[in-house]
Amino acid sequence: YIQVVGERGASGTRVRPAHAAHFPSIDFYLDDTLLDGSLDSREVQDYITTTAGLHVVRIRRENAAPNAAPLFSATVNLQDGHDYALALIGRPSALAILPIDDTITAAPPAAQALVHYANANIEEPNWKIGPVDVYLDGALQVAALNVGAASPYFAITPGTHEVAFFQTGANPATEKALTRKTFVAIAGDAFLIGTGRHDDDDDDLTDLEQRVFIGRSAIRFGSALLATVPYTVLPTAAALADVNNTLNIAPGARSFALPITNTGARNTGLVNVPNRPATPETPLASAFELAAGSPVLSTIGATLRPADVRFVGVTSSYSVTRNLDQFTYVYFGMASYAPWATPNEVEYQVWIDANRDGRDDFLLVNANQGELAGGMANDVFINVLYPLSASGAPIPTSQFIFWGTYTPPIQSSIDLAPFNSSVMFQRAKASDLAMPSNPADPNSPKVTPTRFCYHVETRARALNGFKQLVDRVPDAASAPQAVCGGRSGVLYYDIQNPAIAPINTSNFIFSTPVAARPIFLDVQGGAITGLVRGDVLTARGGAKLLVLHHHNAPFPQAEVVDVRQLAVGTP
């Protein structure tokens, strides 16, 4: 791969919320943006990008409405190109925001980490903790660190360390530390370790009880990694595939085949080579019944355009399995108005109301295995199905499926083309959408839905770290759906009764017939195939097919095909 490194520039200011006060859990806002809900004491969250200049930090009660009166607010002035931890410090009736400058100006020695320390306290007339001495593994690291101050960065070796904070001048051999904490340093990471006020449940606010808080991030200094671009001798986007824009269905037909034309360089089918059935020139397409199209957003710039939804489609493998058990999957196809460099920069979220009661039950979203495991983002792309709590919040899970249903970006010579693309699809097992048969009894037997309602939302890392909505399909104010409990802003899918259900039953690439996918060889002479229901097609007055060409250049990657039921006697 090639790494592109450049200056941070005007958009390089980052902030992260930290809770270092003797105070309950809070909702932490920067201006009107929620940085973190239910931020607990000792927590330090991840960075988001913001603008330089004056901002207002607003602290609200946990789970309070976004427009509720804040418990506390303070203005902060952020410098261009700097990183900050915005720490809530103090106690009830004596709170403050301490902007801790986390900016790194130099790299540590090879295979080491960085750490700096903060005295995150605020003094009162009758409460003065004063400067603190910081010890690391029993050795003095910082002497007399003033209240409200942060130290420079120090290099540390990977492994387990213990940090201890003492009042300045205390003898660590004979006197008790204000607080201490063990942590594990990882090469290439930067640590913020601070001490803040804490009451050990004794209601004595005159003592000097403290508690350690720790923030961790990847080292970023001077310049930033802007992109990691994989490359091969043959460009990934070297196909030039398309299909006819009309598909005529003969009377009584139960299946269809739509021919593919490909005049590009990536145009090779499967080969008879054990464990490597494809070549670097094998292109892929996926296909779905079109569920919705969305107009281009006029209110966003080029940075957010990859999260601007163009098309949404859906299909399933029910036409092959004829059941709703473990081998039946539902597939959602999506296309945007511009390509992302990496799918880690956008989130396409499918919110699913499995029992059609007007409340979403599951969230299906693209992600990566690194961040799902609590680490840094990596290129093992996945999609994750989260169950939702009664409040609508995702419940942590380890359940995921690999991008494109194979280990990405390349498996057994099939290149899944996740980079520099404007199309993707996600998959959920139908049985994983099962809900209790008795809504009042969560322990009652679960029933897999044959029909469900859903909508798609997008978010972008560049817009407050995925915390703000970019696009929604359909629009929240769209016509209500009677089959979805009268809910507005949703789409409807009947697994057992689609008008058209694209599925590959001729060559399975890596599948067996029982695990057929809507993935096709996008080659000259290939075809998009699947089931068609003439009765449903006629009742709906037609349908549309969404075809995604994964190895075409970003435009035209998505095509829409009119599906028409021919009348009896039509030649």
Automatic annotation (TrEMBL):
Domain DUF4397: residue ranges? 15-126
Q: Which InterPro entries does the annotation name?
A: DUF4397
Task: Note the superkingdom of the native organism.
Answer: Bacteria
State the protein's name: DUF4397 domain-containing protein
